[in-house]
Each structure stands twice: as structure tokens, then as C-alpha cells.
Predict the structure.
Amino acid sequence: MKSAALEGPGRNGKGRSKLGSLFIEMWKHRMVYTLLLPGLIWLVLFAYLPMGGLSLAFKEYKANLGIWGSPWVGLENFKYVFRDPAFLDSLWRTLYINIVKLVIQFPFPILLALMLNELRMRRAKKWFQTVLTFPHFLSWIIVSGVVINVLAYDGLLNSTLTMLGLPTINFLGSESMFVPMIIFTDIWKSTGWGAIIYLAAISGIDQDQYESAEIDGASRMQQMFRITLPNILPTVTIMFILSVGGLMSSGFDQIFNLANAATKNVSEVLDVYIYRITFQSATDFSFSTAVSLFRSLVNMALLLLADRVAKMMGGDGLFR
């Protein structure tokens, strides 16, 4: 008892000293924290406070009682979710589309960044980077409008095939062509923007390594594989982990705007399923919140798993 009493004040004093040091450091860098304040306020208001609505997943929502007054039902909503065959279909379809996207689409920004880095003409490099980045700033409504006008049954491509005496192709109404169209449009829209991250990583490489390699007679291809790629590997690892962490989110805007009744069987991914059960059928906010919470938990589990695997393979992860 005596020793514990003697140790207690020391520990509390140590804790108070650490807290005091923290406040001293914060006051010393108060201008930096002032700049961070608007972002922190936005994060709290729009990212953390809305999490209170997730309690709907464990309640039976009644509009007259509100979120907090609705009765608790435990895991009943999740039982109904896993009994719905449409949910299971959309779940596997989401994983399939996103895994295919990850395998095919992920290397494109890396390759583009490597190619742009090899351009020695600065003006041409800036022109290509601007042109290839521009699609990122177009909304999926505009992109889908262009795609529909080009690939529609009476669109530009089929009109050209008719003029050449060739049979027309129903691009937009074909289930087998829907996933390739999704992947192609996503590559076109996001590759240029994604390459910026890798170009930033490349710009941080020590130029002495390239000069030493040139003295040793290394070709530009050898420099790319022996210097550039190994140096940007930590960035590639982090981007891959983040991509794996988003496997359950399949880009609602893109699929919603490009899908139609003919491709319904292959286009209802999890995001579209949540939209349908929330706004196009008997409204059940508790059910749709349960689906959204399940999706978020799986994304978090995939993120942590990818981080763990990356560390086991000797790479850098997101967390210490």
C-alpha cells in the first residue's frame, strides 16, 4: 500500500508533465494548428457526427419517433439482409467487378507515370499530363452521355459500321460488354489523375542515383527498373492497400449512369442495391443502413488485411 501510494503521485506527475509539454508544443505551433482547425471542424461535422445515424442498423425506424426514439431490434435487420438473394448477388458482383478492376486498372497510372517521366521535352510532358488528367474533372453524367452517344444502337460507332456495310452491335444492351465498358471508361477517366501521385513520388528520388547509373553505363530502361520502380514501391504499396480497402465500393455514379434495364442482371452492385432498396421500393432506412454498415466493416477488414499482408511481405503499411 505504501509503495503504491508513493508510485501514484509520480505517475500522475509524469502524466501531467507530458500533457503540459503537449500544450506547450501546440502553443508553440499555434499557427499551424489554426490552419488545421477548419479541416478538423469539417471532419467532425461531416464525418464523425453523422456516424450516430448508424444506430439505425440496430433499430426499427419509425418516422414519427425519429432516429433516437425508434425501438432497438438488435441484429434483426442483418438477419433480413443475409436472407435476401438480391443482396448476396450484388455482393459477389461487386467483388467480381472490383477485383477485375484492381487487376487490370491498377498498373495503368504507374505505367503512365513512368512513361511521362521518361519524356525529356518539358512542354510535351506538360501537354500530355494536362490532356490525360482532364477527364478526371468531368462528372460521370457527362462521361456517360458521351459514351451513350458513341455506343448507342444509333450512335456514332454503329452509324459508321452501317456506312461501311458492317452489322451493328448492341454495345449498351449487351451483358457481356458491360463490365469491359465499365473498366475501359474508368481507366480513361482516372489514369491521368492517379499518375500524378506516382510522378510526385518519382520527383522525390535522389538524382545522384541516376547520375551514378549513367556513369556505370546503365540504359534508361535499366534505370527505370533498378532505380525508379524500387524507389516508388512504398507509394505503390500504399495505393494498393487503399484500393483493396475500397473493394466493396464500386463507383455508384459510373454504374448508375451507364446501366440500363437490359444490363440489370450484371450491373446491380452493392451501391446500386442500397439505392434501390432505399428509394425505389418500400422505404426501409434501417435495412439500407444495415447494408451500408456491413459494407463499411468489410472495407475496413480488407484494408487492415491488406496492410498486414504488405508488412509480412516486407513492405510499408499504413499503420505502424
User: Anything to note?
Assistant: Residues 274 and 288 are 6 Å apart (CA to CA). Confidence is low (pLDDT under 50) at residues 1-10. The radius of gyration is 26 Å.
